[in-house]
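Contributing new records

If you add data, match the layout below exactly. Sequence lines come first and carry their own label; structure lines follow with theirs. Keep one chain per record. Anything else will be rejected by the validation script.
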Amino acid sequence: MEPMSGAEVVFRRARVDADGPLVDLAIRDGKFFSVGPNGEKAPEPAPGSEMVDLDGRVVLPGFVESHIHLDKAFLEERRPNLTGSLQDAIAITLDLKASVTKEDIRARSERALRLLLRHGTTRIRAQVEVDPIVGLKGMEATLELKEACRDQVGIQIVVFPQEGIEQQPGTEALMREAMRMGGDLVGGVPYNDHDAERHLDIVFDMAVEFGCGVDLHLDFSDDPEDRCIESVARRTVAAGLQGRVAVGHLTSLGSMDDEVASRIIGQIVEAGITVIPLPATDLFLNGHGERPARHRGLTRVRELLTAGVNVAVASNNIRNAFTPSGNGDLLEIGLLLAHAAHMSGAAERGVIPELFTHHAARALGVEDAYGIAPGKPADFVVLEEKNWDGIIIDQPEKRFVVKNGRVLAENVSETRWHV
């Protein structure tokens, strides 16, 4: 192949890994076509293009929000969860859902999406609720948003039955209609239905019917006897869906004894299931009780990673009854996970960015079109940080957010001392 020339833009002196040399990132037609050490001859910029000197700043691939509920964002402004229980979170959201409109869902989703983009997220997997109460309003609003924002963010849609399937008659038919409208994956929440196994029957049958993956809210409790993950692992292998199933929460795994947890982690590895801890939600809703809980309601992140499980991390919610906080910032979520999982020390905190970049991209099945390498889409985040070890603990500003070679956001933080 003849060497390409005429870069549209070259970002010079970028730090793309912890130990390697600074590199120059040359971009053309929205893709990387040269990623080479600074000092070697970089492609000449085309007339009218530009050079940006990053001066050794850290560059990460565009952040991937692998589990987010855009349609429920900011509902805490209408009614907060004062008890912090999962049961109240479900009840409050169910009550509020009856009065939402498609326009309301679209407006709150856009507000959340703007926060995500501002903080470096360029791909998301959105959980969209479908049931007889809200109907298909959420699907309609999210599909509109997906099309309107396709040049800024890639959106996958999970058709999600928050209120259960058989518990809300008519939900299964609406889920099928939502999949025909453009749903990408079948979602499920077996702990919020009459019969968890029957719920999973419907979800996996539908996934096979539509030839898609599965994304579940699963085993969301402090009870070590909640082991629906074992059924999910068996079903994943039986359906040939290895690598195409993700489970969020899985907090009961953290309450199990070591021997049982180790056995179940082996099943997760065999089934190729991605596990997505959602620390802002998991820590808010779990660990309550009359006596201090032994565990704070987080899955076994370190053990899962050590076993080779694909572990991602995500926000889940932004300011509603399930999660009262959130700025759409995966660096913030990563720091929370690092502290809660005892991974904030120097030996392990460097792993955390992988959980909302490459691991999350694998969860979405987009790893072949992801990363900082020639031929990949030029989606990346320039951090106001020159030390790789400081990515999580310094919580640096996102200096540039770039999608397909175009700068979407430029953020500047400035302190003026008056002393």
